Amino acid sequence: MPTNNLSSRFERIARDYFDASYEAMPVTATMLGIHRFDDRLGDFNQPALQENLRRITDFQEQLAGIEAASLPASLQLDYELLSNDIHLNIVWHSVQQEWKRNPNFYAEWPVFGLFLLVANDFAPLEQRLRALAGRLREVPAVIASAMANLEAPPAVFTQVALETLAGTEDFFAQLIPQVAAQVPSVEAEVLTANEIARRACADYAEYLRKELAPASTGEFAIGRNLFEDRLRREHMLDLSCDDLLKLGADAYQSTEAQLSQLAEEIRPGKRWPEIMEAARDLCPSTDDLMNAYQVELDALRRFVVSRELATLPTNDDLRLMETPGFARPTTPYAAYLSPGPFEVKQQGQFWVTPVDRQASEQEQESQLHEHSFAAMAATALHEAYPGHHLQLVRSNEVSSYVRKHISSTLFAEGWALYCEQLMGEVGYQPAGLADGDPRYFRLLLLKDQLWRAARVLIDVGLHTSQMTMDEAVNLLVDGVKLNRASAESEVYRYAMSPTQPMSYLVGKLQIQALRREFSGLSLREFHDRLLSSGTIPFKAVDQEMARLA
């Protein structure tokens, strides 16, 4: 078959596959910037899930009918990425069966779908509110599917679901009514639908507490085979669990040594955790927290431009906001929400989790100190400039249709962690640390690197049943010096997202290897080439950079 016919056939399979995914997972479509299904949440009853699995399997068979080597070089990587995505989708439905074991999917995903319509102004507010009303009316059906589908989930999944639902209370009680009041013509429709959704979520929380929690006896660990399958398929890594454990242990030990050496330079005779406490005391007030983050973001952006570290996205746009309540149980500090690749308006959202004013005075002080000026700078550069925001919005500019749908945490998180080292390497000093010891920032970056090395150990340990939840929490508390509440939130997330926690350190190491490989390029040239491939695994990036060199 002529190459151009094969290319057209491949691209048609890709478009049909992703089109089907929009209807099956409308919230994902909204995230991507596809708005045909904004008034839906999706059908998650078992017949619908089985039909979706049948369709995905059919796409897998269609793709197998094309020999990848016969495609143009520009499409061969896209073929592998699509094949891996289809494989992982099948695993989600038929092997891991997340729809059967994860109550938080039904708690978080629908509300996230509602939030996207409120937070992103991709269309007139009236249009978004009418879609919102449609999604609100579908919440009871999603909850009904949850109650019918869930079977003996892991206890931690049920616990996180309950915390997520508690975080939605203000969303239904305050945020939606406030937004609906801005458009009187649809306010009544939205409020009626909102009450229906609120009651459904309250019923779900009651069901989780009284019925599902006692039956939550399942195992959260996915096991060595599935873990290594994800390494190969999602991240394109030729590593085993044992390889990862050694990599994590080596990085943990070397980082500990670097921390001790720097601590001795700063205050002879003092250990790094003691010096970190002094650094943590340098923090904004609770009332000035968001403003302090904005000052740091502005300083970072100016620095990236003036030092020519990378090309900023076209029409760069970043919005700072407080983390939505429903996301706070799994977002103890900060997070970034990127615009969809198909959105016309490319505005990113930088979430900061504020101090919980309902907590005890001691706990509030502990939370505030997690936003010290040194930590704030590390977080802001990781999430925004030159981290996630710069990289993901640049990625949205990629022309490949397949790559607009693929998002590798290995690239995204690896890039953000690499940026932490990069900014220390080129001499960035936090805006808020003008009156403090500048070495606090270096110490904080090393402490965060220790944290990411610990994530590798915990990720593999938890999901191969070599480490318990308590042991994982203790490693973060005793080794990395997180406070216990934050450590618990972190470990809950790790338990629910196998191979994501390891992607920070492993991705950073792969970027460093690529930088050595392309050492003849300036920093800006290297970064721009790296960022031009999309958010795909580095094995694929390496192949593309070598081909285009």
Structure description:
The protein is mainly α and 549 residues long. It is built from 24 helices and three strands. The protein has helices at 3-24, 26-32, 46-64, 73-94, 98-101, 103-119, 125-149, 155-167, 169-180, 184-212, 224-233, 241-266, 272-280, 289-306, 361-369, 373-383, 388-395, 409-425, 439-463, 469-479, 484-496, 503-517, 523-531, 538-548; strands spanning 318-322, 334-337, 348-352. The chain has a three-stranded mixed beta sheet with strand order 1-3-2. α13 (272-280) crosses α19 (439-463). The longest helix has 29 residues, at 184-212. The two termini are 30 Å apart.
Tell me roughly what share of residues is in helical segments.
Answer: 55-70%
Q: Could you tell me how far the N terminus lies from the C terminus, measured between alpha carbons in angstroms?
A: 30 Å
- Radius of gyration, CA atoms, in whole angstroms: 23 Å
Main sheet record: 3 strands, mixed
Average predicted local confidence, pLDDT: 94
SSE topology string: HHHHHHHHHHHHHHEEEHHHHHHHHHH
Strand count: 3
Which structural category fits the helices and strands? Answer: mainly alpha
Strand order of the largest sheet: 1-3-2
Strand content: under 5%
Shape: globular
Q: Low-confidence parts, pLDDT < 50 over ≥5 residues?
A: none
Instruction: Give the number of helices.
Output: 24
Give the arrangement of secondary structure elements.
Layout: H1 3-24, H2 26-32, H3 46-64, H4 73-94, H5 98-101, H6 103-119, H7 125-149, H8 155-167, H9 169-180, H10 184-212, H11 224-233, H12 241-266, H13 272-280, H14 289-306, E1 318-322, E2 334-337, E3 348-352, H15 361-369, H16 373-383, H17 388-395, H18 409-425, H19 439-463, H20 469-479, H21 484-496, H22 503-517, H23 523-531, H24 538-548
Parallel strand pairs: 1-3
Antiparallel strand pairs: 2-3
Helix pairs in contact: 1-2, 1-3, 2-6, 3-4, 6-7, 6-8, 7-10, 8-10, 9-10, 12-19, 13-19, 14-16, 16-18, 16-19, 18-19, 18-22, 19-20, 19-22, 20-21
